[in-house]
């Protein structure tokens, strides 16, 4: 039978991914018609003008074109430490970047990742339990694939969440068990809510097997405290849940009260029995932080407290795809072992990375302040990650108009915003919402110098929108 829409895998049809959904498609159409679009729907820093860090690109360029290493002029174009590093990475491969690696990634790079984790957390890390992946996404998919056996297997996922989780769970035919983050508590996580979510899922015959945390949060931007992480780990221990710690934004921190602390470190600090029993998978990427190398597709995951036979099976699953991208593995190696003080490239690397992070910190503030100055909009401060997630309090007139247009209210608002200003956002419903509450997500990535103008144009649109729809009914819900 031919593959028709009707005969597609139902799980594929059910699966939704709003980050590239209706808003994105309409924005692409408008762009083709010649309208200037500000794409803030995807956390894709280089697409919004962020320059690549010089050192890693020099190293990977040399790895891609190894004949340059034999050119007598190579030392005039590339610094000696980049040349040495390229030779080092090529020596770890079995035939350069054109050869498959082991399906877990190059052993030498996995060792560098393990050393990074050990330096970061102060606890040993075993390269045999680290798998390199094509971006964190592929790692998340591999692990969920191993966990989900059918629709009665549930995964606890924060709401709002990044739709990689909801989409993959749908695709694999599992059940998403939501737990709600508390917006009025700066998107904090209340363990009592978790208990309720699990109890409710169990009463429906669902066996809850794993829990996802995103720290720092996407789309919510909060940084979890050490105490909160401890509670979560204790909860996973008592409920026998695998914790999936999505820590892809660990370099993106914009406040000083709560620096990033990894789930692995907190778990190890808790000591026995937790440190020996809680099963944890931690994910990281080269796509975020001050690297923003989304197109390179580099990531890793580290497994803690998994029996060797399970690790073997996950290895088998990874082997079906033969090998993660080898150039991406080198980016990962470079990210976890960047130039050190005293290296020729250190000053430039430190200057570039500091410049990006400081600008992101300023942009986080400009955005939050901008949103909070708008009528019927409230926004928690972006403590970390790359997004702002303002709540939009839509008046009844707007809800009515959205209904007439056959749109979900936040989609209606975001489409109007796009048409009026060219700002392409993602409606909050794409990340999950409480009933009757509306948000949008925007990245904090537009160029800093363009930020005031973008926020002015947002404010102008929003305030006019609110006035129009409040007046259309003569009253406001607020
Ligand atoms: N986890 C989270 C929480 C993410 O936000 C993303 C990407 C990923 C994993 C996957 O990243 P990589 O596969 O590139 O490593 N975030 C998307 C987003 O919300 N906007 O842009 C991409």
From TrEMBL:
Annotated keywords: Aminotransferase, Peroxisome, Pyridoxal phosphate, Transferase
UniProt key word Transferase: yes
Annotated ranges, domain Aminotransferase class I/classII large: 82-456
One Pfam family of this chain: Aminotran_1_2
An example Gene Ontology molecular-function term: glycine:2-oxoglutarate aminotransferase activity
Pathway(s) of this molecule: Amino-acid degradation; L-alanine degradation via transaminase pathway; pyruvate from L-alanine: step 1/1; Photosynthesis; C4 acid pathway
Catalysed conversion reaction: glyoxylate + L-alanine = glycine + pyruvate; glycine + 2-oxoglutarate = glyoxylate + L-glutamate
Reported cofactor(s): pyridoxal 5'-phosphate
Gene3D superfamilies (alphabetical): 1.10.287.1970, Aspartate Aminotransferase, domain 1, Type I PLP-dependent aspartate aminotransferase-like (Major domain)
GO cellular component, one term: peroxisome
Full protein name: Aminotransferase class I/classII large domain-containing protein
